[in-house]
Amino acid sequence: MMEYSMAGPKLPRAIHAGQLFSLAPEEKRVNVPKVVSTRRPQLKPKLGQHFLASDSYALQIVDALGDTAQKTVLEIGPGRGVLTSPLAKRARRLIAVEIDRVLAAQLRLRFGMFPNVEVIEADILSVDFDSLFGPKPGLRRPGIEFKPEPAKVVGNLPYYITSEILLRLFDYAKYFETLVILVQREVADRIAAEPGSRDYGLLSATAQLYASVERLFTLPPGAFAPPPKVHSTVLRLTMSPRQRELGLSDGTNGGRSNDGFIDFLKLSFAQKRKTLWNNLKSNYDEARLRAALSAAKVKPAARAETLSLEQSATLYRALHANRDGSS
Ligand code: SAM
């Protein structure tokens, strides 16, 4: 919508997302709140701000999500919008969560014309996924069975909280279908590692409990501005929780799926150099532990990283048989 100011030089003005701003060359603008200035905001290295500098890599990442025309997409850390831009044109609904106040304001301004795009200024670790994707008032009435429509997730993840973000997404697994994420290559190695390998650990076991993991491609540091010190890898995680297949309860607890098995894995991997016996004995009676290890055919001197998920689940079930009512 265009209009002209009443006073001063007759410069065109536009009303955009309910705000009036001048279309005069940037240098001449006055009264433009700093927060929506189109100038590049100061980089915040502590927030893991290494922006993807290539549109073609961005398109490859967005393509890896598959068809999003009928889907909700959650974008984590949209930054300057290199992934947001193609997604805004493709997705039925796009929710972009950015912690940086200035970047969030700029994104809101830039994508204000897209009714399918919501920019939320928040820490992704504190976003309430139940409110975003869970049942709304009226959907809890008897006779209405709410089924979440699983969203796709995309993000060039801030490196300082990659594991926390993933663990949180797994915690709310029922709301998510596919995750396409860009992470440090070493972290990708850990997520995709096979049991028995050097990189296998709690993150690998948890990721593989919830999803099948594919490594898609690796980007050099030069693909980002500013360049990080390490390479980065794009992973696709297709959510397919294995709890039922492994004889574990699906642990559904409200919207969350945090069951005792995850706590058991945390304890098993508590100290990587220690044997399973030493890690587990703090929490289990020795006789029970000995019997369960024997039932699961696991040597007490074994380390957690040598066990397949099936073996860990068998051990967990043996330890908890008749202990907490589960079999
Ligand atoms: N997606 C953009 C790109 O590829 O150029 C930016 C990626 S940059 C690696 C990570 C982004 O996540 C930054 O914009 C940063 O401000 C944001 N971020 C960092 N911590 C966050 C948090 N806890 N919650 C939401 N966003 C966060």
Portion in strands:
15-25%
Largest sheet: 7 strands, mixed
> What is the average of the pLDDT values?
86
The geometry reads as globular
What's the N-to-C terminus distance?
66 Å
What is the SS-derived class?
Answer: alpha/beta
Q: How many domains comprise the coordinates? A: 2
Give unreliable regions as ranges. 1-25, 253-257
Computed Rg:
24 Å
Based on the coordinates given, report the CATH architecture of the largest domain: 3-Layer(aba) Sandwich
Q: Main sheet: which strands, in order across?
A: 7-6-5-8-9-12-10
Number of helices: 11
Bound molecules: S-adenosylmethionine
Write the element-wise H/E pattern from the N-terminal end onward: EEEEHEHEHEHEHEHHEEEHHHH
Count the strands? 12
The name of the CATH superfamily of the largest domain reads Vaccinia Virus protein VP39
* Helical coverage, percent range: 25-40%
Provide a descriptive summary of the structure in words.
The protein has 327 residues and is of the alpha/beta class. The chain folds into two domains: 51-130 and 146-239, Vaccinia Virus protein VP39 (Rossmann fold, 3-Layer(aba) Sandwich), CATH 3.40.50; 271-325, Helicase, Ruva Protein, domain 3 (Orthogonal Bundle), CATH 1.10.8.100. The chain is built from eleven helices and twelve strands. The strands form three sheets. Strands 7-6-5-8-9-12-10 form a seven-stranded mixed sheet, sandwiched between helices. Strand 2 and strand 3 (19-22) form a beta hairpin. Helix 5 packs parallel to helix 7 and helix 10 (286-295) crosses helix 11. The termini are far apart. It binds S-adenosylmethionine. S-adenosylmethionine (SAM) binds at residues 47-52, 77-80, 82-83, 97-100, 103, 123-125, 156, 158, 161. The site of S-adenosylmethionine (SAM) has 23 residues, from strand 4 and strand 6.
